[in-house]
Amino acid sequence: MKVESFCSFFQNQESSKVTRRNTRSSSSVTVENPEPNESHQPTVDDLTFGEESITLDALLSDFPGRRSQILDLIRLIGPLDCPSFPIMVYGDASTGKTSVVLQVFRHLNRPFVYSSCRTCYSPRLLFESVLNQLLLHSKCSSNGYSSAKRCDKPSDFVNLLRQALSNVMETLDSKSGTSRSSKPDGKPVGKMVYLILDHVDLIKEWEKGTMILQFLFSLYSVLKMPQLGIILISGLPPDVYYSNMGYTDPIPVYFPVYSQEELHQIFLRNQANRDLYSAFLDSVLKPFCRVTRRVDELSTTISSLFRKYCEPLDDLGLSPSEDLKRRLYNQLKPLIAPCLNEIFRVSSRPNDGDNRGERRQKASCSSENREEVEKLDFHMSTSAKYLLIAAFLASRNPATLDASMFDSTGGMDNRKRKRKASEKSMEKKEIAEQEAVMKGPGSFPLERLLAIFQCIASVGDSSFGEEEEGKEEEEEEEEATGYDRENNNLMSDVLLQVSSLCDANFITKSGSCPLEGSVRYRSMVSEDLALKVARSLRFPLSKYLYRR
Amino acid sequence: MGKENPAEKALNLIRGRLCDPTFVFRPLSVSSDSNYSKLKFIVSTSITEGCNNSILLLGPRGSGKAAVLDLVIGDLLEEYPDSVSVIRLNGLLHSDDNCAFKEIARQLCMEHHLLFSKMASFDENSQFIIAMLRECGLAHKTVIFVLDEFDMFAQGKQRLLYSLLDAMQSVTSQAVVVGISSRLDADQLLEKRVRSRFSHRKILFLPPSREEFDSLLEHLLSLPSDSSFPSGYVSQFNEKIKSIISDTRFKNMLKTFFNANSTVNSLLKYMLSLDVRFRAVSLMNLESGLLSLENFKAALSSLQRQPKLEAVKDCSIVELYLLVCMRRLEVKEQSSYNFISVMKEYKTIHDSFQTSDYYAQNVCLRAFEHLKERAVICYAENRGQFQTGEYRPMKLLISASELHQGMRSHACCPAMLLKLLDH
Q: Where is the ATPase AAA-type core domain (chain B) (predicted)?
């Protein structure tokens, strides 16, 4: 699979030359010594990919569906020692931009410098990372993990870059003059260095990001060094970067999202039993492609589904007959639809394919069996549940209605509203509804939350007193005297509960009210979850929810 | 092999030419009334007569201001090797005064083999520069300051411009300040005290005319006859280029390219058109060894991308549903909408049409985030960051027609969605 190549996204390419090259390759899985060899003296050779270069055919077969992009890139980069204009590789996430570019350089076997704006999250880190690589400097304990040069301004970067580049050019020049015995495969290295900057779109979010972007886009014309080829990799199309400053346009190379057939080929790579997997993909890929066509998102779900698919099989090596395929498909079919809705869920356990299926099955048959739904997927104390509901109510209901909602003297009965069916009022209602949706959940002070909490906790107990856990709370009204009683545990560490709910992001703090000066809270729970929690407490939530 | 070799060599040669701005602009500067000769005249008289001068080069981006200046400076350095020194600053890098002074001091030190101190203060640097200017004036050495992105220096207090131009008011100094800017009103940005010290010389750079352009094309693409190419190949190659350039189809193609481009971004057209050549060269097929009209066409189409359409084509079905929902909300003249209201619309669509693509909210939320990542949609305002993403108002970044066109060319867009988009 292509998953290995995704690791390279997250690798800090600076750690050491040796590991860098290893982790990048998508073919070799073994990682040798992770610590840089002390005796290893970095040379210019380390600027190339560092492994045996691959042939064009191998490169093309490594990336199904990327043929025209690879050929385009190679043509644009040009033959050996040929100057080139800046190139911008762009396309959606997980379309193989980084891997293709790096593998192309492996194929060409030319020196390059790779820095990702994901790991180098500030101009200084980015500049220093580029310079470190050019100056063949690796951070290690002996130099206190410091960079070769301190550099945080673009102007300094240009000067240092010029210097470093001319040094590298000199060594490259002298190398190309002498015999190339040091290269194992005798392939030429050339007299150019390429600068590959990944995730350029992230710079937009940086402080003064537009300035840095303009600088990077005009770096080619500022430097005036044709020996430096620049390749920018971006997730966003070039039109996003237009500003009133302008720049010389880099040449765009577009990586479209993989089509279904291409995905089929990608997933089929490195599979032991191709026939079986192909049959599996035939049945699975189509519905999933409607949701997403990203390889990284698909690969996790599909691999766990394949495990389910293979479950009835004893021998994974056999090639399936038509009949078997059909049987397996029928078995898998009910699992696909729920999995579609699970596709983005990050599982907390690595191998919970089975678990998940079970839970889903439970949920799917819940329509008949209501009891099972009342179990929550996570554990929560009773008081926390009440608090959650109280917060939900406080966010959804207008504060002015609290009295009529929670007044035990029957305020609920005078909730009759005059209904005018006139068109104007309907229109108004619609607008109000829209506004409510736009505003999202409202905010509330802590006092209101606690008041509602007390009310609903008492109501929950009086109306459902037969419950075991509710029993102790019948004397809620006398709570002032009952500090030693068990039921007051529900009240005593309420603030602690509130803060833990805040930590769990069920409730968020939302800035202080300018008039009152106290912190206001906001409930972030969806209605579904609130209803679920209420059901688990047998609390009649809908009775208290104000509907416009 | 014998046939392939010259083609590849020709390709490398042309590529090298394209990346070399001096080669590109050399032919445009031969005539006596060209910007090149004007600029050269001004600078060389101030060198020979030992006077101060300041010039602004104005023109759209990519019209060759910096390249022509480089040509001039290169020639002058050859003519007067001992009496010219060049200091280059770029507004992108040195718009900060402190930084600019430091850079000037550094370059002066480099030029005159002096020791540069990084720790020098702003004051020390500016004193050093003025002293150096005086020394250079006494030694009859002209310092040429090249200020690229001149308008960037006009931001802030303009201390750099003031002190440079003020130093030039004295008799002893001998310097030329050349500003390069794509803002035609660059001199209006100057403060009064700076403007009064500035000699209002401006040279305007215009994009080349069609005739100039054609001759430039020929200049760029035709092979020299005195090189190591087989002679038959050179004449064949050049004939082919000539026939392509005079071809009306090619002329029309160029015209449409110019028309489209001047509306979208007229500033970039010249450089872009060079890029087109570049692509054509890249796609030149090595078998015949000759450029063909098809090469130019292919290069043009590969360059004229429509990123928004591509983005729509990249969308999955769920994402398309969301886009259609947002579009429908816009048609309904709902002033603003967020994820929750989009989901509501999605549900009503599902309820009334019973589509097969109805997914859970978390899937849709993820699809929503994908769209945001791809800059197809974005938050309508920066306020309200305390809200979670679902409630923040959104807006579409593509027009209805783009969406329509993109969905039409989408590989597997359901027909129903297109219908939903229309009403």
A: 55-201
Say if the Cβ atoms of B19 and A343 lie within 8 Å: no
Query: Among A251-260, A340-349, A418-427, B30-39, whose mean pLDDT is lowest?
Result: A340-349
Task: Tell me the CATH number at B134.
Answer: 3.40.50.300
Distance of alpha carbon A545 from alpha carbon A138, whole angstroms: 62
Structure confidence by residue, pLDDT tens digits, B77-113: 999 888 889 999 998 888 888 889 999 999 999 888 8
Clarify whether residues A114 and A196 are in a common domain. yes
**Location of structure tokens 């971006």:** A234
- Per-residue pLDDT, averaged over B14-27, amounts to 72
CB contact under 8 A, B283 and A75: yes
The region, left, alpha or beta by phi > 0 then psi within -120 to 50, assigned to residue A42 is beta
For residue A434, give the nearest of B334, B362, B388 by CB distance.
Answer: B334
Which of B189, B268, B279, B374 should be substituted to probe chain A, the one whose Cβ sees the most A Cβ atoms within 10 Å? B374
Q: How far is CA A448 from the centre of its chain?
A: 36
Within 205-264 of B, beta carbons closer than 8 Å to A belong to: none
Q: Is the CB of residue B322 less than 8 Å from the CB of residue B368?
A: yes
A402 min Cα distance to partner chain B (Å): 24
At A338, the pLDDT band (50, 70, 90 cuts) reads confident
Tell me if residue A310 falls in helix, strand or coil.
helix
Q: How many of the other CB atoms lie within 10 Å of CB of A285?
A: 17
Judged by CB atoms closer than 8 Å, whether chains meet at A239 and B279 is answered as no
A194, A269: one domain = no
Cβ burial of A181 (10 Å; 0-12, 13-18, 19+) is exposed
Tokens 């004051």 belong to residue: B123
Does the structure show a pLDDT above 90 at A406? no
Residue A405 is assigned to a structural domain of this protein = yes
Same domain flag for B41 and B181: yes
- Three-state DSSP at A246 gives coil
Mean pLDDT for B122-138 is 89
> Residue A382 has what pLDDT?
80
Same domain, A233 and A219: yes
Q: How far apart are CA A89 and CA A76, in angstroms?
A: 11
Rounded to whole angstroms, the Cα distance separating A10 from A4 reads 11
Instruction: Identify the DSSP state of A259.
Output: -
> CA A5 to CA A63: how far, in whole Å?
11
DSSP collapsed to 3 states, A397-440 = CCHHHHHHHHCCCCHHHHHCCCCCCCHHHHHHHHHHHHHHHHHC
- In angstroms, what CA-CA distances link B176 with A335, A352, B51, B70, B110? 77, 74, 8, 14, 19
Smallest Cβ distance to B15: which of A78, A218, A345? A78
B22 part of a folded domain: no
Name the residue among A292, A439, A440 with its Cβ closest to that of B316: A292
ipTM of the complex: 0.85
Residue A489 and residue A513 in one domain? yes
Please indicate, yes or no, whether residues A51 and A182 belong to a single structural domain of this protein: yes
Q: Are residues A128 and A232 in the same domain?
A: yes
Residue type (1 letter), B410: H
Residue of A70, A438, A444 to mutate when probing chain B, most B C-beta within 10 A: A438
Beta-carbon contacts of residue A145 (< 8 Å; ≥ 6 apart) = A139
Query: Measured in whole angstroms, how far is the alpha carbon of residue A528 from the centre of its chain?
Result: 24
Q: Is B410 on the interface with A (CB under 8 A)?
A: no
Give pLDDT, residue A150.
Answer: 85
**Which chain A residues are within 8 Å of B374, Cβ to Cβ?**
92, 235-236
Shared domain for B222 and B323, answered yes or no, is: no
How far apart CA B99 and CA B104 sit, in angstroms, is 9
Nearest of B292, B285, B206, B216 to residue B18 by alpha carbon: B216
> What whole-number distance in Å separates Cα of residue A151 and Cα of residue A130?
11
